[in-house]
Structures are given as C-alpha cells and as structure tokens.
Amino acid sequence: MDALDGRLIELFAREPRIGVLEASRRLSVARGTVQARLDRLVGDGVIRGFGPEVDPAALGYGVTAFVTLQIRQPGGHDPVAERLARIPEVLEAHTITGGADMLCRIVARSNADLQRVIDGVVAVDGVERASTAISLATQVPYRTLPLVRAATGTG
Amino acid sequence: MDALDGRLIELFAREPRIGVLEASRRLSVARGTVQARLDRLVGDGVIRGFGPEVDPAALGYGVTAFVTLQIRQPGGHDPVAERLARIPEVLEAHTITGGADMLCRIVARSNADLQRVIDGVVAVDGVERASTAISLATQVPYRTLPLVRAATGTG
DNA sequence: CGATATACTGGACAATCTGTATAGCTGCGG
DNA sequence: CCGCAGCTATACAGATTGTCCAGTATATCG
C-alpha cells in the first residue's frame, strides 16, 4: 500500500464507472500499472469487491436500530448468530465486550415494523434480553476513504 | 422494485465484473432492459454506487469497536459529529435514542492503538463520556442481499 | 561490484463491450 | 378502442478490455 494505491482507491470510490484505461490517464501511469495494482489490491483483500451498494432506506427500510443482546451462555454465540443471520433485517451482528454479549444492526420499515423485527430477534433461541437504540440520524455515514488516506499518506 | 430488480442486484453483488451485456444473458432479458433497470435503480438511489469496498482489517486496522458517547447538550450533536468526522478511524456515527447520545464505529491497529483513537474521540469538544465495546468477532458481516430478497420476493 | 528479480512504461492486437438509436410487439389504464 | 410504457431485437461506431511484448530503472542478493 503506497500513495498510488491510495489515489487509485480514492479515484474509483469517487467515480467507479471510469474503467482501468481512464483511471490510468487520470493518474498518469500506464494502464498495465493500474491493472496490476487493482489485481493486487483485490488479491490481498484490501478491496473486497465492487458490488452494488444497496441503500436499505430506498428499499423502504427507513428505520435503523442497534440492538444489544444478552445471550444465554450455555449454547454459546454461534448458534444464536446463525439464527440471527436468517433474519433479513439483521444487517450485521458482532459479539462484543462489556455488559452485553452481542450488538446487531437491524432495519425496519417503520417504528411499528421495528417492533416486529425485534420480536423476531428476541424469539431467537438463546437470546435472554434485548436492548434497542434507534438511530435518529446518521451523522457520519459509513466510510473508509479517510482511513485509506491515513494509511497511505494520501491527500 | 420487482423480482427482476432483485435478481439483477443479486447477480451484480455476486459477480460485479460481468458487465451489462453478460448480465442480460444470464437473466435472459434484452440488454436494453438491464441497462434501463440499472439506470433506474441508481437514479432512485436504491443502488448508491459501485465503489470499491475497502476492508479496514486488510489495511492494518484489525480492531473494531463501538463507542457510545454522552454529549454535552448545549452545543447539540452536529458540532460534535463534525469533529468526529475528522477522525479517520471513525467509520460511522449515529445519534441514537436511549441512555447514550451517539454511537460510533471506530477501528484501530491494535488494542493499544485503540486507546489512542478513543482518546481522540473523548478529546472532541462536547463529548462528556465515552463507553467502549470491542468487537470480538463479526458473526454476521454487513450485508443487504437478504433484505433485497425479502423486499423483492426473490429466491 | 555484477547478476537477477521486480515494477513501470509504451505499444500492439483481436475480441468484446458500451452508448445510443431504431422499430415492432404487448399489456395496462383511461 | 387508443395511447403509453416497458420489453425485445437489432444495428453501428467508438471505446475498453485482456493479453502479450520489449525496454528500462530501481532494488535485492551474493
């Protein structure tokens, strides 16, 4: 990861459609270089992929909430996670340190719908207790560019 | 959003590189249809973009933590968010309901480095208190495909 | 110091894809 | 019954991709 990698990622983040050739022009390097760098970044897992980023809100799921769970320990976390994964509205789940055992991000169509989703979560076998915090506003939307810049000494 | 949209998103999520033409072949529809659908999905904001997904862990930031903040109310949330946004390791920040005022996702290079990042967060003017939960494992990685399927009645 | 490996440049090629446009067909709503 | 919207099928020029190659500079190693 050097500065060129950083600029490359930034460029593609800003204008994903430009393609390798145009990118090489913008960065003033040979096309083969861009191609090689990109292949390496993907190969190393730095870039997970170029999939479409779907906005849950545009799909009608305008309510986001963070739910912390307390798990009945005997079973362990994995079986719980496996069942949580079956709920489409559970976008993400982590085991965490601290008072709670897991933290998940869920979405719902409305506050009323949120109740339904939460019911689905607490109905998961092994979940003892759930505590919900609704996201009122996304002050900083998920991003990684500043981190890339920090890591590569770019911009 | 109908089933074709769902299959289209799923296809591009699985193999982002295939291109419009190949996608039209896979879905057995005309190329123009795929192009029109894609344009509409992007136009409607359902698909935010096709930017590279960067893995912070591959960049050396292997530690993820969720920090809940209590904010000194007089200033409001926005100035705090604005300052949090300047910290590259803050990947995301929300204002939330419940005991705490904000929840942010941060990353760091190590547990020791996490201390540095948290110090940076609590140093933000307006932050009264911070409570950190380290992510031990990502049981369900961030995903939206199941939601797309649920919303479109796909597979 | 000399030899080898690595990365980048600049160029070439065929095959493919994109952007864009047209015309005809079909189902739905007025 | 008519018109509109969405889809199919097709066309074409221009651009891009995947893949080579040779030459050069920088770095590494013995």
Automatic annotation (TrEMBL), chains A, B:
Q: What is the lineage of its organism?
A: Bacteria, Bacillati, Actinomycetota, Actinomycetes, Streptosporangiales
Note whether DNA-binding occurs among the keywords. Answer: yes
What PANTHER family does its record include?
Answer: LEUCINE-RESPONSIVE REGULATORY PROTEIN, TRANSCRIPTIONAL REGULATOR AZLB
Q: Which cellular component appears as one GO term in the record?
A: cytosol
Name the source organism. Actinomadura craniellae
| One Gene Ontology molecular-function label | sequence-specific DNA binding
Q: Which UniProt keywords apply?
A: DNA-binding, Transcription, Transcription regulation
SMART domains given for it? HTH_ASNC
**PROSITE patterns in the record, alphabetically?**
HTH_ASNC_2
Q: Where is the HTH asnC-type domain?
A: 1-62
Q: What is this protein called?
A: Lrp/AsnC family transcriptional regulator
Picking any one GO biological process from the record gives: response to amino acid
